[in-house]
Design a protein that fits this description.
This protein is an alpha+beta fold and 122 residues long. Helices cover 20% and strands 43% of the residues. The two termini are 15 Å apart.
């Protein structure tokens, strides 16, 4: 999942790193993290949410443009499906909302993606 998301962010030309921004600071940038949902099914499906936090010192429009790229790339209906080294992954846009930063010129938005993975189906 992490490899797939990194590849997709690169394909979208969105500056992205996992868990923390470690590169030279330039805006906007996106940091990802995830949460897992317990598996209740016997079909091997795993579910998680990828939390993408986009930050800028520019205009809100920069963050909205990132959100729209992601929303279009990972449709809420049908999602983006691909085979991985371990099986199949489908990623869906879920929702987004502004996140207060406490700094007047620092703007942030959280974008959530729903992820479903099946192992051994490729």
């Amino acid at each position: 999942m992490l490899k797939f998301i990194k590849e997709q962010m690169s394909a979208l030309n969105i500056p992205y790193e996992f868990m923390e921004w470690t590169s030279a600071l330039s805006y906007p940038y996106v940091v990802g993290e995830y949460t897992e949902t317990p598996t209740l099914d016997e079909d091997g499906k795993e579910e998680s949410t990828m939390i993408l936090t986009a930050t800028t010192r520019g205009e809100w429009l920069e963050l909205e443009e990132i959100k729209q790229k992601i929303k279009k790339h990972f449709p809420a209906v049908g999602g983006l499906r691909a085979e991985t080294d371990n099986g199949v992954i489908v990623v869906f846009y879920s929702d987004a909302f502004p996140v207060p930063t406490g700094e007047a010129d620092l703007k942030r938005i959280q974008i959530n993606l729903d992820i479903r993975e099946w192992k051994g189906l490729n």
